[in-house]
Amino acid sequence: MATQITNYQCPSCTGPLRFAGGSGRLECEYCGTSYDVAVIEQLYADKEQAAAGADPQWDTSMAGDAWSEEEAAHIRVYGCPSCGAELLCDDTTAATACPYCGNPTVVPGQFTGQLRPDYVIPFKLDKAAAVAALKRYYKGKRFLPKTFADGNHIGEVKGVYVPFWLFNGEADADMRFRGTIVHVHRTGDEEVTVTEHYRVARSGSVAFERIPVDGSSKMPDAHMDAIEPFAYGELKPFSSAYLPGFLADKYDQDAEACGQRANARIRASAQDAFTATAGGYATLVPEHSDIRLRRGEVKYALLPVWMLSTKWAGRDFLFAMNGQTGKLIGDLPVDWRKFWLWFIGISAPLMAALGVILF
Known about the structure:
Blueprint: E1 17-20, E2 25-28, E3 34-35, H1 37-51, H2 69-73, E4 75-79, E5 86-90, E6 107-109, E7 119-120, H3 127-138, H4 146-149, H5 151-154, E8 158-187, E9 190-214, H6 221-226, E10 236-237, E11 247-249, H7 255-276, E12 283-294, E13 298-312, E14 315-322, E15 328-330, H8 336-358
């Protein structure tokens, strides 16, 4: 029967590792570094998985819990027939319009299933703060359609708890760069430029906690990235007592479906973190990047967002503000009629003045 043999190499110098009975660890004969056996086994398991084109699976077993019968009895669900959003609220809150597409008709339905969140960050900023922020955002926008800046329209801002999966994990990185340092000095009448070339290596591990990925396909990822970060120090164990007066979106992308985006965010952050340690070079060109992810647990949280969605010329526009910090992002349309009237109003006098000067 064939047996697969693995020759372990030192992550630091790539020399062969041997097991030392005295220490119970794997030791490198060349650089003298020693490693715990479990660490090397996990490192090689991650390499094999990466070579097979598959990332480590996230541990989603601890994400969310079941709703209690008492909580479920006081939860109402509304469905939007326009965009398909499903919104939760307590039985004292009436949903009158969809915060994602602005559709004025939402249909009440029966609450069923889905996970109960582990955490919630309560709204810290009220609706008045959201409306004031939106008015400031609109201010000075000369070509904004009048209906957008209308006071009644701004009053339609809604508080929504957006579902997020929070990923914990680690990344082991091995990166190499080609760096240069340039020195310029004068010798007599000549300017001499000396370029030094370096091989720059960085390796190590970095831990990540609560990487957020929203679980709603209706919410543009770019909007959610733009209003980060949330202050996780204010995370509370979930209670339905935080729901009255607000809507909560039901996730339609589970933790496993969102895992790939979490992987991409962790890889990009790890690469940025290690690249940032290689400062002081005139140029720094990446030559090799090997980033391996370690499996971590996932939690489910509801995070506060003030939202306004509306349509203009057949297009959807969405404004979103972090309900904890006030950071905001918004899509704004252009009233081209206003633009061309302004353009004609500016250009006509200029053309007339130019004609007088020339002729």
